Amino acid sequence: MATPLLVNIVELLRRPGTIKDIEVLIAVADFDFADERIIDVAVPVTVHLESLANGVAVSGNAQAQWHGTCRRCLKSIDTTLTVEFSEMYQLVLEDPDAFAIEQDQVSLLPMVRENILLALPLAPTCRDDCPGLCSQCGADLSEASCSCTTDVTDPRWAVLDTLRENLTKDS
User: Fold this and answer.
1) Are the C-beta atoms of 11 and 23 separated by less than 8 Å?
2) How far apart are CA 154 and CA 160, in angstroms?
3) To pair with 32 at 20 to 30 A between CA atoms, which of 57, 141, 150, 171?
4) C-alpha R_g of the chain
């Protein structure tokens, strides 16, 4: 079985300015994510390679299906993560962030994997304005409001509240 996204770039290296486009579907198992948030659905990857004097510029995108839990309301989230990437591959690594060209081939799989993992949200929300759960009763505030009082003051601040009241009386 051929390694997915292992691209022979002999022709690209011979002529700077040469372009190569690739579109493939990669099985999630090939990425070896070890992350249960990625759904086991093939990942479409589009890659544009352009030969430069000092290496190959790689740009493109990938779309991975993922699921998680909203950090505010605890609802399940299933959505598509679209990742744009732009990286550099070099024969002689001059840039510490560049990837290596080995034996006239570039392995794009580790780069795409890295970009997908870095794009996964650390604290996902079901929507930007999700109000979350009530801190008193646990009601989902996106579905209904609750009658809990939210003006409960932390007892450690009580002294400052009395000071504020005294200052407003004096003014």
Assistant:
1) no
2) 11
3) 57
4) 26
Rounded CA separation 124/72 (Å): 9
Domains in the chain: boundaries: 6-119, 131-171
In this prediction the pTM is 0.78
Report the alpha-carbon distance of residue 43 to residue 28 in Å, rounded.
Answer: 7
pLDDT for residue 138 is more than 90: no
Higher pLDDT, 36 or 52: 52
Paired with 8 in beta bridges are: 105
Write the single-letter amino acid at 101. I
CB atoms within 10 A of CB 74: 12
Measuring CA to CA, how many Å separate 146 from each of 71, 135, 136, 150, 152? 19, 10, 9, 10, 15
Q: In sequence order, what are the beta bridge partners of 25?
A: 44
The CA-based diameter of the chain, rounded to the nearest angstrom, is: 83
Instruction: Tell me the torsion sign for CA atoms 142, 70, 41, 7.
Output: positive
